[in-house]
User: Fold this.
Amino acid sequence: MAKFALILLAAFALPAHALELKPWTGGATPPLELSDLDGKTHRLADYRGRAVLVNFWATWCEPCREEMPSFERLRAALESQRVTVLAVNLAEPEARIRRFLDTMPLRYPVLLDRDGTTARAWQARVLPATYVIAPDGKIRYRHLGELDWSSPEVRELILKLLK
Assistant:
């Protein structure tokens, strides 16, 4: 029992960036076509030729809130590269999302999955769920749970997709 407790403690003591991205084995990339808070439609197909991180999140999800600044740091660090972050909110009222964004300004699009249909199509059953899309439009990696997306290891992996 003590051995199990030590393993559990060690797992939780790992920094978020130490968790690796898992290669995607879930099939073809589902379509994504959602509006942002300003009513502009975003289609995943419009980002072809770029690496895209599609992050499913909710304001009530503590790990989601914790990792959002790391997406912003990643976006800023790779601003001159072909990298885009799309944050897909899972079925929350716009007013709640806007209040949250007043406390955490982000410079990447926040899209509205009003009924959860897109999350189901993407197999995003746990939040946060993030998918890394290569410039060819195919999902290459998925990560469930919080991650430091601005870590050097993650940045390097994303930059490799652009080569």
